[in-house]
Each structure stands twice: as structure tokens, then as C-alpha cells.
Specification:
The longest helix is centred in the N-terminal third of the chain and has 13 residues, at 42-54. The protein has eight helices and four strands. The chain has a four-stranded antiparallel β-sheet with strand order 1-2-4-3. The N and C termini lie far apart (71 Å). The protein has a domain at 42-107: Arc Repressor Mutant, subunit A (Orthogonal Bundle), CATH 1.10.10. By secondary structure, the protein is of the alpha+beta class. The chain has helices at residues 10-13, 25-29, 42-54, 73-81, 96-108, 112-115, 122-129, 141-144; strands at 56-57, 64-65, 85-87, 91-94. Helices cover 39% and strands 7% of the residues. Helix 3 (42-54) packs across helix 5. The radius of gyration is 33 Å and the shape is flat.
Length: 155
């Protein structure tokens, strides 16, 4: 039989007659935690994407050389001020915020597979699944494993 848990009086715990407790009501009134998103203007996001795609990567570093890209230094300073990049006007690194903007931009683009996609009618898809005209010896999938106890021998 389990031993019941009894109440321990305050004077036994050493607290005396003081009622020391914590008010946890602030947990219920706290605002919900929101996922933070990085905001950047369309111009800044397209400029970041251009630097990322056209810039020359520096070996053994996360830096990108932007000397060969025609980007005004004023725009570079604006991106630095917004905390999207760091570095000087010839070589920059993307901050965490800048990487989030680039990731969002690249994942939002249409992929090359979608651009070249050809819509096929259902009947054409079914016809392409037929293996009658294709060469090669094929064993039916249902009989390739003899766990289903099919008699595959000729009698």
C-alpha cells in the first residue's frame, strides 16, 4: 500500500510564519511568442540577391568580392546600416539577417523545372506507363517475392 503524501507545515520547513510564494500569473498574461521575420525593402532584397549571385567568392572565407559588380557605395552603406551585410565596399560578408533575406528570395523564385514543365494529359501519362513496347525481360512484381505462395512453375 502506498504511503500518502502529507502536508509539511511552514514552521518545519524553516519558513516560519512567512508566506513566501511566487506569483505565476505573469505567465498567463504574457504576449504570445511571435516568429521574427526580417523585413527589407524590395530594392534592398534584390540588391542582396544580385551581390549573392554575381559576386566572386573568396576562398577559405565567407566573404564575397563585389568590386566587379556595379553597386553604388551608397547602397552598400545602406545595407550595412540595416544590418544585412558587413565589411567594406570591395569585400562583404552576409549577416544572419542578410542570409534570411537571400534564403527567402531564392526559395520564392520559380525553379528551372517548373519553367520547362510541359502539361501532359492523363491519357498520355497512362500510355507512357505501358511497358509493352519497351525491350527487356520483366518479372511481375507480385510474383518476384514468393511469400504470397503463388505456383510459378509450369505444370
Amino acid at each position: 500500500m502506498p504511503v500518502p503524501i502529507g502536508r509539511v507545515p511552514d514552521n518545519v520547513r524553516g519558513l516560519g510564519s512567512k508566506n513566501i510564494g511566487m506569483d505565476y500569473s505573469f505567465l498567463f498574461n504574457a504576449p504570445p511568442i511571435e516568429k521574427k521575420t526580417v523585413t527589407a525593402s524590395n530594392k534592398d532584397a534584390s540588391l542582396l540577391l544580385e551581390i549573392w549571385s554575381k559576386g566572386e567568392r573568396v576562398e577559405k572565407s565567407d566573404s564575397i568580392k563585389i568590386a566587379n559588380i556595379n553597386v553604388p557605395s551608397r547602397d552598400i552603406m545602406r545595407l550595412k546600416t540595416m544590418g544585412l551585410i558587413m565589411g567594406d565596399t570591395s569585400e562583404v560578408k552576409f549577416t544572419k539577417r542578410g542570409k534570411i533575406v537571400i534564403t527567402t528570395m531564392t526559395l520564392g523564385e520559380e525553379s528551372a523545372f517548373e519553367k520547362n514543365k510541359v502539361e501532359k494529359p492523363y491519357s498520355e501519362i497512362l500510355a507512357s506507363l505501358s511497358k509493352k513496347t519497351k525491350p527487356g525481360y520483366r518479372i511481375p512484381k507480385f510474383a518476384s517475392n514468393n511469400n504470397n505462395h503463388l505456383n510459378l512453375r509450369k505444370s
